[in-house]
Structures are given as structure tokens and as C-alpha cells.
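Before a colleague's protein record goes any further, I have to sign it off. Thanks in advance; the entry in question is below:
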Amino acid sequence: MLADERLQYLRAAVKSLPERMRYVVEEIYFGDRTVKDLAAELGSTHAAVSQRRSEAIRLMRDGLSAHYADDPEQPFHPQSRITPRRRNDYLTQLSESTSGGITRAVFPRGPFLNEAE
């Protein structure tokens, strides 16, 4: 059951990514495409596509840490490098799309999750 729950969460995490990040992740991991192929298709550099993929992975890790921590009391430390507003938007959307029982916390709208107190 836990594996099924995590798979549902992973699907929601990918679906909640910003459009360009989602496209890169879906094409690389589900479409079996290379970063080089995507760079050519998108008219971008290999490095830019790779950076987008890496940031998407960090953002999904943030979602996993924030919503699905093994220890709900563990403090959240974001790994992604995007702006706090974009991170909060992603985490909020992810929370809303997974609030059917597979998240441990629903974050309130308000101050950003990673702002200093």
C-alpha cells in the first residue's frame, strides 16, 4: 500500500511541476528521450535542459519533504533554487492535488514556507 501511495504522490508531483519542467521530466523519464534530443527540439542548450531537469527533481524533493516526510515534526529545508513564490505555488498546488489522504500537511496560504521567521 505504501508503494502505491508513493507512486500516486510521484505522479501528482510531476503533474504539479511548472509546464516546461514537467515536459522535460516526462520526456526524459517517461518518454525515454535524451537531454541532447530535447535541447535540439527546444532550441536550447544541453546545459539549460539539464539544469531544468535538475531543478525539477529538487522541486519534487521539496514536495516530498514538505508533504510526505517520514517524521512530520522534521523541519522543512527547501533544496530547490527557484524563487520562494514559485516554490510555494508548486507546494500549494501539490498539496491541493494530493489532499485525498496522502499528504500529512496542507500548507496555509500566507507567508512563504521557506521565509525566515
Notes: The radius of gyration is 15 Å. The first helix runs from residue 2 to 15. Residues 103-117 have pLDDT under 50 and may be disordered.
